[in-house]
Amino acid sequence: MAGKKKIVDARQDKGGTISHVQFAGNQSFTPVEKAIGMAEQGKIENAHTVTRKDGSRFLRSNPNRKSGDNLDEMAQS
Questions:
Q1: Cβ count within 10 A of residue 4
Q2: Using one digit for the tens of pLDDT, what is the confidence trace for 30-75?
């Protein structure tokens, strides 16, 4: 996984949708639209994209046994 970014925090908009993510080593947050493109290119180690039936895409953390590293959990803290 050399060279891949890791998401360490997330923010959500007023509606509860993830709007920004923060990568390890960065102080600023990246818009989720940019992170979706990065995930599709394999540049994020702990997240991937999912495409809904309507064609829209969203970012999802990779499955594991922890809940604290899920994007929704990160955005809550």
A1: 13
A2: 999 999 999 999 999 999 999 999 999 999 998 777 766 688 888 8
**Rounded CA separation 32/54 (Å):** 18
Neighbours of 35 (CB within 10 A): 25
Report helix, strand or coil for 51: strand
Rounded distance between C-alpha atoms, residue 71 and residue 17, angstroms: 10
How far apart CA 14 and CA 34 sit, in angstroms, is 20
Tokens of 23: 């990568």
H-run or E-run covering 11: strand 7-12
- Residue 72 CA to residue 15 CA, distance in Å, equals 12
User: Which among 33, 36, 27 is positioned nearest to 60, based on CA atoms?
Assistant: 36
